[in-house]
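Thread: "does anyone have the structure for this chain?"

Original post by V.I.:
We have the sequence but no experimental structure in hand. Need at least a predicted one for the grant figures.
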Amino acid sequence: MNEISSFIKYQRKRLNLTQEEFAKTAGVGIRFIRELERGKESVQLNKVNQVLSLFGYSLSPRRQNIDPYTVYWRFFKKAVKITLNNKTIKYGVIIEEIKRENEIIAWRFLPNSSAISFQQTKDAGLTEEIIHSNIQNIEEQ
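Reply from O.Q.:
Generated one for you, tokens below.
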């Protein structure tokens, strides 16, 4: 799965649309949506832009960074090791995405050291907010 495919799948599921419903809404074929969500390498850019326009986006060049939607699909509610831009390393679990205007900007993170207490109390004070743009690397523990 690549950045575009994970973004589109996330947005489609957020809207509670099936692939068939989404294809019809976007004005593209179901096969195109399936291939796009699977991360097919060769797709028609005009159709990709047609789909992205439903969410107010289009393809454009920008600096590469860690895609928040890939983080959501690969690491959400899993034990992770996060390296921040300042080289701080954190071990724990991403338990919630934090959005602004329907874009993921940060993560609610539960450090391993607070996990047992959190399970017993559900005290949000035991969690941390990690700004997505501060993440240099993320991997499973």
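V.I.: this helps a lot. The beta strands are 79-84, 89-100, 103-111, 128-131, 135-140.
O.Q.: and The two ends are 21 Å apart (CA to CA).
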